[in-house]
């Protein structure tokens, strides 16, 4: 059994930084989008890689957005090789009028067969990326701790068959 603990950015740094600085404020007058909040939830920890990632994003459009706003949720499969990163979900939010917007992404869990066996257990990241008009303007990262007292790697990687 694999256990996954997802920590928010705030959990990781709350003792070192004043959290009020992470509230979205329009200090950059060239910015068209501000992030009000992002919350990532998983199902029960007992299942680890079996759970979907439910991500709620609330953002502010400071002006009408005439081009598509794209949101990507990525699981980092290896700290040393980006080829093992998995795009869990991509959402084309489309254009947006001025004001606050909220949406939910329900992303599938990462495919463990695409993660190197020696990197299944340990610390990794979930990354939320946002693009507007084809240019990435935001990257938010959350540390994820994957651990197990006695994981059966062979069972985890065994092919799954469904009867038809």
TrEMBL record:
It is found in: Nucleus. GO terms for biological process: DNA replication-dependent chromatin assembly. Transmembrane segments: none annotated. One of its GO terms (molecular function) is histone binding. Its main location: nucleus. Coiled coil: none annotated. Keywords: Chaperone, Nucleus, Transcription, Transcription regulation. GO terms for cellular component: chromatin; nucleus. It comes from the Eukaryota. Belongs to the ASF1 family. This is Uncharacterized protein. The gene is WBGene00102093.
